[in-house]
Amino acid sequence: MIGRALGDRRGVILVSLTALTATLVVSFFTDANFVGTTMLLPWIALFAFEAGAALGLAVATASFVVFLFSPALGNIDITWAFVIGRFASFALIAGGVGIAGARLRRSEGRNRRLVEGLPLVMYTEDERGLTYISPQIEPLLGYSAEDWLSLPGLWRQVLHPEDRDRVLTEYEQAAAARTDFECTYRLVRPDSRAVWVRDSAAYVTVGRRSYRQGFIVDVTEQRRSEAEAERNATLMRGLIDGTVDGIALTDRTGRIAIANQPMLRFAEELGFPRGGLMHERLLATSPAIVDRERFEERMRQLAAAPDVESSDEFELRDSERVFQGFTKPVLGGDGTYLGRVWTLREVTEIRNVDRIKDALVATVSHELRTPLTSIIGYLELLGSGEPLSEEDARFAEIVRRNAGRLQRMVEELLFLSRVDVGGLELDVDQVDVVDLARAALGSADPAAAAKRITLEYAGPETLRAKADGDRLGQVFDNLISNAIKFTPERGSVKVSLATEEGALVASVSDNGVGIPEAEQPRLFERFFRSPATRDVPGTGLGLTIVRAIVQAHGGTIECSSGSDGTTFTFTLPVAAGAAAPPVAA
Hints:
Helix 3 runs parallel beside helix 5 and helix 16 (433-450) runs parallel beside helix 17. It is elongated and about 165 Å long. It has a six-stranded mixed beta sheet, covered by helices on one side. A five-stranded antiparallel beta sheet has the order 2-1-5-4-3, with helices on both faces. The chain has a five-stranded antiparallel beta sheet with strand order 7-6-10-9-8. 49% of the residues lie in helices and 22% in strands. Residues 1-8 and 576-585 have low confidence and may be disordered. It folds into five domains: 2-117, no CATH class; 121-224, Beta-Lactamase (2-Layer Sandwich), CATH 3.30.450.20; 242-346, PAS domain (Beta-Lactamase); 355-422, Signal transduction histidine kinase, dimerisation/phosphotransfer (DHp) domain (Helix Hairpins), CATH 1.10.287; 429-584, Histidine kinase-like ATPase, C-terminal domain (Heat Shock Protein 90). The protein has 585 residues and is of the alpha+beta class. A hairpin with a 2-residue loop joins strand 1 (121-126) and strand 2 (129-133). It has helices at residues 2-5, 9-30, 41-51, 53-69, 80-117, 137-141, 145-150, 154-158, 164-177, 220-241, 261-270, 278-283, 292-304, 348-381, 390-422, 433-450, 469-485, 542-552; strands spanning 121-126, 129-133, 181-188, 194-206, 209-218, 246-250, 256-259, 310-315, 322-331, 337-346, 429-432, 454-460, 464-467, 492-500, 503-510, 556-562, 565-573, 582-584. The protein starts with a helix and ends with a strand.
C-alpha cells in the first residue's frame, strides 16, 4: 500500500502529512515545549523538492539544521533523546519525500520517452493556449516545441489559406460546445511546403480543471495515395466509358460491380431488368432473340460454369440488330475465380455490309459465269481450223489459263454464296476416302513435279466413310494444292489417314517455312492472305471452303505450324467396319 502511495503526487503528500503528524505527536508527548513553528520546516523542504532536486537538497539541509538546533534558542536542553527523536522525524519526512520524488521523476521520464517516441505529435491546451506539445512537431512542421509554446498565434498563422476558414470554424464550434475536435487539414512549413495532418483532440475535465488533449498525425502520403487512386479511378472510368463496346464486371456470384456507359445504354435499349445477376438479366431478353434456344442454352452454361470463356453472336427478332457477346473470367494471382468480364458489341452495320457484299458477289459471280463459259469454249475452238502461229498460240494459252483461273474464282464465290444463303447441301454416300486422297495426289502430281516436291501417302489401303465424295475430294485438292504452293523446291507433302475412336482423322503436312503464329487464327477467314504470300497466286477462299465442307460433314479442322512446316488435320465420322492395317505408299 505504501509502495502504491509513493507512485503519485497525492501519495507524496499523504506520506509527508503522516510523517509530520507523527513528529508532532511524539514531540507533544515527550515535551510540550518541543512543539513550535520549527515543525513546519520539513513541510517547506517538501515543496522545495518539487522545484528541483538541487534546490530541495539545499533547503532540506538548512531546514534540518534549524529544526535540530532551534530549541536551544528557547533554553531547552538538547539531550540525546531529543536529537534522536528530531533526527528520526526529519529523516522519515525526507526519506518519504526523496523516495516519492525519485519515483515520480522516473515515471515522468518513462511517460515522456513514451510520448516522444510515438510517430505522432501529442499536445495539451486550455483556455490560455498550448500548455504542452511533444518535440515531434519540429521535424514535422519545422517549428520547435518552444516556438509553439511561446507564440500563441502560430497555429492560426501556419494554417493553409484554403483550409483556414473551414478549420477555424470547426475548432471554434468544438471549443464553444466543449466537445471533441477532429479535422484533416494542411499546415504550411517555413519552406512553404504543405503538410496534410489529422488533428484529433478530446475535451477532458479533472475536478475544476478542464483542458483539451490531442494528437496530430502526418497523413500527407495517405492523402497523396488517395488522390492518386482517385485520379486513376477517374482515368479508368473515362477509359471504359470512352469505348464503343459495352463492358461490365461481375463478382463471383454474378452481381454487377462495374458497368460503363455503353453497357448501360445497351441495357436500356434491350430492356434488361434493373435487378438480378448478369446472366439472369441477359436471359430475360431471350424472347426477343432470333435463335432463342441457343441463346438460353449459352446463358445456362455460363451460370453453371462461370470460369469458361465464351463468344457468341445473336440477332434481335424485330429490330434486326446484331450483337456480339464476349465473356472472360477474372482470375487472381493464385488462380482463384474472382469474377467475369462481359463485353457487348453491336455489329449491325458490319453484318449489313456483309450481306450487301455477299449479294453483290453472288450477283457478279452469276453474271460472270455465262460469259466466262463462252470465252473458254471459243478458246478451245481456236486452232481447230487453221493452225495458229507460235506467238498467237502463246497468247491464246495465256488467255485460256487466266480465264480458267477466273472461272475457278467465280465457282468458289458461288459456292460460298450458296453456303451463306441456305447452307451446304451434301450428297452423302459410302465412299472410300483412300481413293479420294490418292486421286487428289495424282491430280497434284504435275504441279509437284514442276517444283521437284515429293508426294507421300500413309494410311490404310481402304477406309470407307459416309461423306459427299465430290466435296471431300475438293477438301483434299485444296489442302494439297496449298501445301505445294508454300513448300520450297525439293520439299515433301504428305497425306495421312487413320481412325481414332470412331472418327476419320486426315492430315496434310508439308515441310515449308510455316505460318506465323499471329496469322494462324485468321487462316480460315475469307480473302485472308498472309503478307508473306502476296506473290503466290490465290484468292484466299480455299481454306474457307475447306472448313465449310468439313463442318457440313459434322467434322472439325485445325492447323498446327512451326519452323519445320505446317499440318492441317480434319476429323469426320466414319462408316461402321474395321479399317485395313495402315501401309505406306
